[in-house]
Amino acid sequence: MKKIFSLLTLALVLVFSSCIEQNYPLWEGALVEFDDAVNRNPVAGQKYPRITVANTVGAVSLQVNLVAAQRSADETINYSVVAEGTTAVSGTDFTTSGTLVIPANSSTGTLTVTIPNTGAIGGSVDLLLQLDGNANISSSENYNQVQLRITRPNPPAEEGA
């Protein structure tokens, strides 16, 4: 009789505990983030990763992720150059528009930076980009920055020097 009572009690506990309705809160926000910031390790002491590109590359495309439900219309996302992490000169070392578009019914957009060939002058310069979002979509605190290090080959050695 004790076995039957124990089994019946266990069955009742399982039945009633599995029927409890769970009301988990749903996050309904919207963020944008750099895919490279999510998938690459940050620079030591910083929250952003550094991507090294040659000044002969032409254009660099950076994927921007929408962390939210896809939108039914295009979303224009603003971004900016962060002066504190940038040594590159706009118009000389790079050009960029300051906005990108995440197309309707999509979860990603592309931020494009054009890198002109400045020739073999040696050294490197840095460009730190930050996503700013728009009125409806904010930027992720942890994954909103990426730095490009633009390398320039050394000039050829002079003969007889």
* Rg calculated over all Cα atoms: 26 Å
Low-confidence stretches: none
Percentage of helical residues?
A: 10-25%
The CATH class name reads Mainly Beta
**DSSP strand count:** 9
Organism: Algoriphagus taiwanensis
Protein name: Calx-beta domain-containing protein
Keywords: Signal
Signal peptide: 1-21
Question: In words, what does this structure look like?
Answer:
This is Calx-beta domain-containing protein. Residues 1-21 form the signal peptide. InterPro entries: CalX-like_sf. 14% of the residues lie in helices and 35% in strands. It is mostly beta strands. It is elongated. 20% of the residues are buried. The model has no long low-confidence stretch (mean pLDDT 92).
Question: Which keywords apply here?
Answer:
161 residues, 5-stranded mixed β-sheet, Immunoglobulin-like, 2 helices, 4-stranded mixed β-sheet, mainly beta
